[in-house]
Amino acid sequence: MKAEEKGTKVKERHSALCVEEAEGVVKELRELLVKAGITLPSLGLDPVSLAREAPCPLVDLGRCSVETARRLAAVMAAAAR
Questions:
Q1: What are phi and psi of 55, to 5 degrees?
Q2: Looking at per-residue confidence, does 23 or 52 come out higher?
Q3: What distances in angstroms separate CA 30 from CA 7, 51, 67, one per listed residue?
Q4: How far apart are the C-alpha atoms of 80 and 47, rounded to whole Å?
Q5: CA atoms of 17 and 71, how far apart (whole Å)
Q6: Is 23:55 a contact under the CB 8 Å cutoff?
């Protein structure tokens, strides 16, 4: 195997691991938010960050209502105490 091919394989595996990790974080965050009674309808991976040659996904928290934002702020404030 050529060094260039090996490097490409390593990058592909790294990208796959990054996507898997990001998906796991989204799942964990969604579960924790549900336990706190909060739903972020648009929570997921940012599709633009996945479209790169070597994806390095960003978590998109999305938009939510003012009430949901207040509840999220209250949970975070309580956790910070």
A1: -55, 135
A2: 23
A3: 35, 23, 17
A4: 31
A5: 32
A6: no
Map residue 45 onto helix, strand or coil: strand
How does pLDDT run across 29-71, given as a tens digit for each residue?
999 999 999 999 999 999 999 888 778 899 999 999 999 999 9
Q: What is the pLDDT of residue 8?
A: 64
**What b/e readout covers 52-79, taking b as 16+ CB neighbours within 10 angstroms?**
eeebebeebeeebeeebeebbeebeeee
What is the token pair recorded at 48?
């633009």
Closest CA to 45 of 27, 33, 65: 27
Contact status, residue 41 vs residue 64, Cβ threshold 8 Å: yes
pTM, two decimal places: 0.78
